Amino acid sequence: MKEAFHGSDVEKIEELYGIPAEEIISFAANVSPLGVSEKYLQGITEKLRSVERYPDREYTALRKALGRYCKAEPRHMIVGGGSSELIGAVIKHKKTPKALIIAPAYAEYERNVNIAGGEADYYYLKSEDGFEFDIDDICGALSPEYDILIVCNPVNPTSTAVASKDIERLLDKCDELGIVCAVDETYIDFADEAYDVSPLTKKHPCLFVIRSMSKFFCAPGLRLGFGITSNESLLREIGENKDPWSVSSLSNEAAILMLSDEAYIKKVKKYMSEERDRICKKLDELKNTGISYIRPKANFVLVRLPGHGPSSHELFERAVRERMMIRDCADFRGLDETYIRFCFMMREDNDRLLSLIKEAYT
Ligand SMILES: Cc1ncc(COP(=O)(O)O)c(C=O)c1O
Fold first, then answer.
1. Overall pTM surpassing 0.90 (yes/no)
2. What distance in angstroms lies between residue 84's CA and the mean position of ligand 1's atoms?
3. Would you place residue 242 in the very low, low, confident or very high pLDDT band (cuts 50, 70, 90)?
4. CA distance 75 to 67
5. Can you count the helices (H) and strands (E) in the chain?
6. How many angstroms does the Cα of residue 218 sit away from the middle of ligand 1?
7. Most exposed residue of 13, 242, 262, 327, measured as fewest CB within 10 angstroms of its CB?
8. Averaged pLDDT, 302-316
9. Which of 219, 242, 260 is the last residue of a domain?
10. Which residues line ligand 1 (CB under 6 A)?
11. Full residue range of the structural domain in which residue 102 is found
């Protein structure tokens, strides 16, 4: 049986394959393997009683901490229940939105456009260009009929990214045409600073940046994301479309602790950048098997399987039997059963997965 799995569906794997969820290493959820910050673990017990009060409706202290972390103005920020809530809120801020989505893309964008009764068109990054952005070509695909352009940067699932200096032409065009440009930066903390477009929010009112604490801070259960824009009316409309207290008092306190742990932030950045380089070298060594990959900018890599040997689904099943869950990318628009994606976990686990892949194609 073929099923599409989200990277966090380990319980579904348990049900279908009979493998206990806690034994499965998820190479599909794109969450850092390094665990939560020590500062959070030490400080949170003092904050347990915070649930006795409603959170500050304006989340002033949290926005200040987030603003310091990502060098944005707290007054330009809005917090929500994961980047998921903000993705939904920005797409739904207009009734029946007409959206242009850069694909391959995270499926939630399309789902939210559908919920809003809107219509989605796709601009496909091309495999022959290594899924790199051709900004002039994307500008050519924009027209005043669109309400929103949705870009993931770095892109899930390709792990390619557009540099902030290159995206400016696109933002100029969106400003000119009155199109909201939503840039989902859920994976930006793993990438080089040059890819972060959030500093451009001050200059471009069309820009709405979406960020998350789920992946880099190893805290998907916190359900904390945030949005950044200098566009006051957009910020107000998004705020009106979401629940007033969607971030709990405890998540509020937890995030402030996590964001203050500079040593932890440095450690995760260093580990991921070293592991990314190491894994690329190992993948380069597999070239003679016909395996290729897109050079990753985030904490995961898109791998193209050779014509011979197992399909993406067959490889997924082989890996699951070894208690490793990878992402079969066959259900992504613009990809097929020759693509898989996996994120970088602990070194010895990554090596185990790479050996399994090597064995499958030699
Ligand atoms: C591109 C992208 N955006 C948003 C999300 C949702 O993240 P959050 O946990 O912050 O809601 C994910 C989760 O996989 C993702 O891959």
1. yes
2. 6
3. confident
4. 9
5. 12, 13
6. 12
7. 262
8. 96
9. 260
10. 30, 82-84, 106, 152, 156, 184, 186, 212, 214, 220, 225
11. 38-260
